[in-house]
Design a protein that fits this description.
The chain is α/β, with parallel strands linked by helices. Helix content is 38%, strand content 13%. The protein has a 4-stranded parallel beta sheet. It binds 4-nitrophenyl phosphate.
């Protein structure tokens, strides 16, 4: 982790899914843990949001929280909707699937310099795939999402470090 020393401003990362109660809060929790473990809290911060507002104000889904807890991650995020100000406040906006990505690109404001990316562009096991929505799934589906997000977040951090 050498090159972060040369950043003078904070890198802001926003993870986005549909409801902001399953995938993106978990990505936020995993990436936050990586930031802390790598002593990068002065250089990188992250948040998450949903393109839909059904669950605004709620904690992450209890199955997501149980899965995160089993990996030593405490999720305290409250769901919020993605807003246009996010285009200005974040350097990287990372969508969990192509539907989320299309939604974000469609409402993108002209004055935004944010890089809008798909989470699994960073998953060497299946580059460019969607992070599957586990909402109607079982415990295994939540664990599968955890593994996908862990791989993807590690590789995303490696990519930032090479910049
Ligand atoms: P997420 O999962 O987008 O990963 O938070 C979902 C959460 C809620 C719903 C759909 C997906 N829902 O239809 O309420």
């Amino acid at each position: 982790m050498g090159s972060f020393f040369y950043f003078y401003t904070m890198i802001n990362v926003l993870f986005v899914c549909l409801g902001n109660i399953c995938r993106s809060p978990l990505a936020e929790g995993i990436f936050s843990k990586l930031i802390t473990e790598n002593k990068l809290t002065h250089f990188i911060q992250c948040d998450s949001a949903g393109v839909a507002s059904y669950h605004v104000g709620e904690l992450a889904d209890k199955r997501t929280r149980a899965n995160a807890q089993s990996h030593g991650i405490d999720l305290t995020h409250r769901a919020r909707a993605f807003v246009k100000a996010d285009f200005l406040n974040f350097d990287y906006i990372i969508a969990m699937d192509k539907s989320n990505l299309e939604h974000i690109i469609k409402i993108k404001t002209a004055n935004s310099n944010a890089e809008i990316l798909l989470m699994r562009e960073f998953d060497n096991n299946l580059i460019g795939a969607d992070v599957p929505d586990p909402y109607y799934g079982n415990e295994n589906d939540f664990e599968n999402v955890f593994q996908i997000l862990t791989n993807s977040c590690n590789e995303f951090l490696n990519t930032l470090n090479k910049k």
